[in-house]
Request: fold
Amino acid sequence: MFLPVYNHQWQMNFKFVLSFYINMSRKKERRSYCPIGYVLDIVGDKWTLLIIRDILLFGKRTYGEFANSDEKIATNILADRLAILEEEGIVIKEKDTEKGSRYIYSITPKGKDLIPMMIEMLKWSATYDTDTRVPAMMVEKAKDDRERFIKDILEGLERNEFLLARRSDQTVI
Reply:
């Protein structure tokens, strides 16, 4: 009777091959080479942009924090969207040094480059949706000085001070 020998090298090869096939199955054939189509293929569903919003404006960084958002994203969809964002280089996932079973998600430069688009979406929604819940001061900043507003968001990310954070130690605008 032949019993396969289990060793570390076999495990590493198996993980590589498995991750290769998982990643290949996720890669969709492009429908077109339209730049808007490209963006929509990555962030075009409502959940993905809300996760990015939560990172940029609320300072959320863990799976649990995303799951507790007002929109109540289903856990299977949340896991899928976080994996796509990581695969596309929009977020990075790192083990939490304080709690080893938890991961921390951080926005990358590629993800930060979505800020101008999201500001335009905020402005559009504030104009056409009377029920939009966003502080008036934030809309004014976005409309009056877009570049300054982008800079404020980026500086807040660097200082861990977020525009819409719901923490007692931070000011909400």
